Amino acid sequence: MLPSASGTARAALGRWRSHRDRRWRRVPQIRVHPGTGAPTVYYLVPDVDTPHGGVRVAYRHVDLLNDLGVRAAVLHAAPGFRATWFPNATRVVDHGSLRFCADDLLVVPEVYGPSMHTIDPEARVLVFNQGAYLTFDALDLEDTRPGSPYGEIGRLEGIMTVSRDSAHLLSLSFPDVPIHIARPVVDGGLFHPGPPPDRRAFAFTVTRRGPERNQVLHMLRALGVDWDPVPLTGMSELQMAETLRETPLFVSFSDRDGFGLPPAEAMASGCYVVGYPGGGGEEFFDPGYCSPVRSTAELVTELQRVMGLPLPELAAVGRRASAAVLQRYDEDGLRDDLVRIFAPLTAMR
Fold it and tell me: Where in the sequence is the domain holding 52, given as residue range(s)?
């Protein structure tokens, strides 16, 4: 039976998207020059200027490393490119002006996995895997070797990740590679509690568990729940923080997340969080100040219970969650992590 015209068009669109995805994931060709004795850390970052947590994290790392006396820069492909969706004065260089030396360190995010085998074998590489559950998503099992995507990197110094859950998963996948944790930072200057909310509303992000989210919203409506849904989409960091401060409840649809920044930011803002830890969130989804769940039925049942509590009670628990998250995921803690990881990697060789 011949494929329909619509089926042929969908297949062609799928091939185009796959080709575009492979092109986007290519590590730029970097020539390695002789060492200088003064290594620089270069964080390779995609030329993406829409809100993307991984980009924000890389920029923060570079700022902190420079503050600590370690020479570092963000590496973009296009001349003059810089992320503009958050304020920054981060040191940025482009591929065309880069002079990469043998004692420099290239930090490569996991999204470039399919092309990491093309990196010059003389380049020192630290993989920055913020999405451990996505490590193999772009790899075909039949077309890759055991140990891919990192096994063919000539000078792999280790893998850096963002949570204990991710570190464990990566250690099972790459048992012979050093694994380091650099904790995420929840910006307490931006995400913090405000006056106790008086609005019966629940916030959520729209990037995970789409079909289940749709089912849950329909179930809540069928149950006569009179709380307003607030999707967090199309917002700047500032707008998101302001919205979370005004919303007493956050529903976490986290799924296969290396850390799960949205529920952590919601807790920091004083929200009571109900939902899925999603993997990385296991380390901060403490039942003492939130409600982790494992199924759709459990999620809806717990939402019904929590939505029946007085708003001041939710706000009080939310403030406890905020204190715990902001104390654990701050810049001082990340500085300690970066010193532990980069001091031995940037010592003169």
Answer: 13-184+331-346
Beta-bridge partners for 155 = 124
- Residues 187-196: pLDDT tens digits? 999 999 999 9
Please report, as a single letter, which amino acid is at residue 315.
A
- How far is CA 327 from each of CA 144, 192, 194, 264, 340, rounded to the nearest angstrom? 42, 12, 17, 12, 19
Residues 158 and 228 in one domain: no
8 A C-beta contact, residue 278 and residue 255: yes
Model pLDDT for residues 110-166, shown as the tens digit of each residue: 999 989 999 999 999 999 999 999 999 888 888 888 889 999 999 999 999 999 999
> Are residues 175 and 320 located together in one domain of the fold?
no
Distance CA 167, CA 178 (A): 10
- Residues 221 and 149 placed together within one structural domain of the fold: no
Cα–Cα distance, 302 to 296 (Å, whole number): 10
Which residue from 189, 235, 224, 211 is spatially nearest to 85, judged by alpha carbons? 235
Domain shared by 91 and 105, yes or no: yes
Token duo for residue 250: 């956050």
Token pair for residue 45? 């970052």
Burial of 207 (0-12, 13-18, 19+ CB in 10 A): middle
Q: Is the pTM of this model over 0.70?
A: yes
Backbone angles phi, psi at 289, to 5 degrees: -140, 15
**How many domains does one find in the chain?**
2
Q: Are residues 179 and 214 in the same domain?
A: no
**Are 220 and 269 members of one domain?**
yes
- Residues 175 and 91 occupy one common structural domain: yes
Q: 205 and 314 share a domain?
A: yes
Dihedral, CA of residue 300, residue 302, residue 307 and residue 309, to nearest 10: 170
CATH number of the domain where residue 231 is located = 3.40.50.2000
* Residue 98 to residues 41, 93, 179, Cα–Cα distance (Å): 12, 7, 28
Compute the residue count for the chain: 349
pLDDT tens digit sequence for 299-348: 999 999 999 999 999 999 999 999 999 999 999 999 999 999 999 999 83
